[in-house]
Amino acid sequence: MKQVIINKDLCAEIVEVPIPQPGPHEVLVKVVVVGSNPKDWKYPVFWSDQPVPSGDDIGGIVEAVGEGVYDLKKGDRVMTYRYYKTPTGGHAEYVIGYDFITTKIPDNISFEEVATIPLAGMTAVVGLYKTLRLPLPWAPATKPIPLVVYGAATAVGAFAIKLARLSNIHPIIGVVGRAKDYAETLIDRSKGDDLVDYRNGNEAVVKGIKEALAKTGFESVEHVFDTVSEHGSVIDSAAVLSKTGRVTGVLPLSLEPKAANLSKDVDWVLTMVSDVFEDQWADGSEEKKQGVITAPKELGYIFSRWFVRGLAEGWFKAHPYEVVPGGLNGVEGAVKDLKAGKASAVKYVFRVADTK
């Protein structure tokens, strides 16, 4: 089968590899549409000296199932999230997905829609409900809980806001740039939500967040979800945090030069989306707090199905997407555009059948 691998210089190659075979509790999915994420360029640049397969967000059709798979069969339309350690990536003709995080989708949901969700949606889930310990949507907040989302129009940030609203978390203060119009569609100003433009500079961001909080009677915030984790966002986030609050970011502090100025007293925690594939949290925590389920893969199981149900019923929306011409041939250009910051409030997706 055809598969894309990405080199450290972000040049991509389409190579021929054997079609993988599903093992126990695995599903072989014929990829119809696959999405992209900043991880597709960051992983080969920062963490690998070898070419790597890419593509984690998949909409496709079940081709075969492994032993122990009881709720999926050949021919099912599905959404799946590819585990990053799997030898073959989703930018390919076939991919392996674990059964617990592979979900049937009805005919009224497109493969393009579901290819915007898994990695970013699950990052939002782990960040909000594990790391920040916020109320789950089916046990929503009963009093105001301020939340700052830095990077409100990123896929992770947008999904975080959508989930937070379903958890009745307000006021939400979103930090956003040129995609401000899109971010405006996510918030509810009648409940105190507001937006701050990061293009005015870091000092203006801090001032804007504090002013937005003050409008609803708050001087600081207990919860900050920094979905950017670059360009000083970590310092801005810490500046509006209460003494007992927590910031969670999506990139290690080692990748942010300005993190050297971060006080050791700041409670900063890295959100690891890969937790949803594991039996224990990466940080070793096992206790249940505020109703959060201990086993992280349970969050993956529950929310993958909950996302699909929301799409089918209309109370949850996919991220805006752009179909890249050329199928898998378009991966290299899209990954380079992601690195260059050209994507704004949009997910790049690829239709495998368009590959030449």
Question: What's the gist of this structure?
Answer:
The chain has 356 residues and is an alpha/beta fold. Helices cover 26% and strands 23% of the residues.
CATH fold naming of the largest domain: Rossmann fold
Low-confidence stretches: 287-291
Mean pLDDT, as a whole number? 94
User: So how many helices?
Assistant: 9
Count of discrete structural domains: 2
Q: Termini separation (Å)?
A: 13 Å
Number of strands: 16
> Superfamily at the CATH H level of the largest domain?
NAD(P)-binding Rossmann-like Domain
Pfam family, one: ADH_N
Organism: Orbilia brochopaga
Domain Enoyl reductase (ER): 5-346
GO molecular function, one term: oxidoreductase activity, acting on NAD(P)H
What does this structure look like?
This protein is 26% helix and 23% strand. By secondary structure, the chain is an alpha/beta fold. It folds into two domains: 2-117 and 318-354, Quinone Oxidoreductase, Chain A, domain 1 (Alpha-Beta Complex); 120-297, NAD(P)-binding Rossmann-like Domain (Rossmann fold, 3-Layer(aba) Sandwich). Strands 3, 5, 6, 7, 8, 15 and 16 form a seven-stranded mixed beta sheet that branches. The protein has a six-stranded parallel beta sheet with strand order 11-10-9-12-13-14, with helices on both faces. Helix 3 packs across helix 4 (155-166). It is globular and about 55 Å long. The model is unreliable at 287-291 (pLDDT under 50).
